[in-house]
């Protein structure tokens, strides 16, 4: 394998003087007490344009805040962090291209993202082959960490470079099923998904648990997530007399779907996962989505003492868009990479290894043992690279806002 050297050394100089950058291989003078700093890059991949850009921008901004905080506090002696953000437009092919670009950048030591599970799936092998660690704040499809046969009890980690700070649909779907059946006493479901990795998988885990509890599925459908006319589906839902619709998909299609189900004369609520937990869902659906429910990973940030500083600093930073559903998880994903870099620096006498290949390998190894109190609570990873934090919350649209109605962990029946 070709060994590549980390490139930029930024010399620390007196206040008011210009910083000088030199290209070349690190020779042991960087880091430690030499006064020189190594600049390394953390990549971010998310949909920064298009229908899901609100979530993507929240991910990017939160990662940016983590990097700025680390640099301001000199979190890793001898290392300056820089962010490179790439737009995947929620497309798997674009995400794979971005992964190749990030791997080819000899300064990139870790990547945060992506938002979408199907995009994450397309990037895994690229990062795995390059030993480049990836930490997603939002992927929830279980197969990304536990393999395609996880539901059969045949769990197998395919890439030791893949980690995530959000919990998975293996618990998110069943958690929603228990809430609807046991707490809300809703017994008849109409199941719809968008056929994508995330949506179909989430609808599947929900359906399995709902049936297990004694619930009845009165109809099923698949939709094209790029469509906006769902009147035919709305008519079928109305005729089914379903208590609610469970939608495995994202808010750009979810909001008009809900509105058109209402217009068809159905009183069924629309319920979905974390991809419906967005201000954009309410903006798109307006009064038609009042009463709808969404689950999301973790506890509401407003209820966590660990999130207070993040929320204050995010506001002070003046970002134009909110941090949205995954802001805290994006900050924690970025901070996890920073902590892994810190562990490698401490292991190597105050500097990173001389080659980018060794640096990436050691950071991936260090990530497995990363543990800290983050924005979203305790952050650590199990043997599959999944978060050990299994908390989830249910939100209801009330008076034009997502209001939390339940927080807890999924309990096996």
UniProtKB/TrEMBL annotation:
* Family per similarity comment: Belongs to the leucine-binding protein family.
Fetch the PROSITE patterns from UniProt: PROKAR_LIPOPROTEIN
Domain Leucine-binding protein spans what residues? 39-400
Organism, by scientific name, is: Streptomyces oryzae
Q: Which SUPFAM superfamilies would you find in this protein's record?
A: Periplasmic binding protein-like I (SSF53822)
What keywords would UniProt list here? Signal
Say which domain of life the source belongs to.
Bacteria
What is the protein name given in its UniProt record? Branched-chain amino acid ABC transporter substrate-binding protein
Does the UniProt entry include the keyword Signal?
Answer: yes
Lineage from the top down? Bacteria, Bacillati, Actinomycetota, Actinomycetes, Kitasatosporales
A Pfam family assignment: Peripla_BP_6
Protein biosynthesis found in the keyword field: no
**InterPro entries associated with the record:** Leu-bd (IPR028081), Peripla_BP_I (IPR028082)
